[in-house]
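Typical record was shown:
=====
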Amino acid sequence: MKHLEFDNSRKFDIVPIGRAAIDFNPVDINRTLAESTTFKKYLGGSPANIAVGLARLGKKVGFVGKVSKDRFGEFIIDYFNKEGIDTSQIYKAENGESLGLTFTEILSPTESSILMYRNDIADLSLAVEEINEEYIKNVKAIVVSGTALAKSPSREAVLKALEYAKKHNTVVIFDVDYRAYSWLNKDEIAIYYSIVGKSSDLIIGSREEFDLMQGLMTKESSDEETAKRWLAYGNKIVVIKHGKDGSTAYTTDGKKYNIKPFPVKLLKSFGGGDAYASAFIYGLLEGWDMIDCLEFGSASAAMLVASHSCSEAMPTVEEVTEFIRKSKEEHGEMVARM
């Protein structure tokens, strides 16, 4: 059953909105950030990673955002151009705002952390006048990043894009993408997350992220209660992630579909969520059954947590398909499905 209907006459398949940043991942892993001396630079930021992931999977991708007016901003635009991602709606900050920088710490395969520099940041200076109605009109789906709602003027720009999407029947995918350091308080989080959650068609988030989104509605909810709440607001699919315990997709027909992670030798514990989202969305765009979308997303996520980078390691369709084939050959046909 197809739970989302996409307008195949549109110019672009998908357009994420939000931050594009730079990740500095340590080459000398298994050390603290204070001890690490050598880092490798990658494109980063959840919306940017999702854009790259879908472009690698062969989709026509655009991006709406703002970068710094310097060499780091040029790096982002050049990287997107190399991946075939349309950069016509990426603006350059004119008031000295910096690109977001993330330094990661990989102490062990299961112990990772990040240190982010996001003061006076370029992506959160995206302005309402920089949202192009015609662009949103010509997209099958936009991906709204929750982090883009953290501050003005970015939050108003995102809400304007949301209004245009609803006006032109563009599918709205809400990737909750919670980053604690971006927000002032939990009430603010609940207000802006719930505004988008009530107007989206698909929500992807962790248990913690859904708790934050409905923080002004209820103190505690089960996954089933949470899914029922957001489906009732008009979403067609609600995906709740539980990390190493897998994830579940709930749909409007009352069904739920479970997936667990593929067995893999971890290198790091971050980056899998962006690969999961891009591969899951790819399956939806292809009209696959829900469990196949989840399996594809889970496989892509496993490949990413076994890799040093996020964006650079985003796989192709053939690579994900081969990974699934080998995993089932080794571990059994239903290795990830529950």
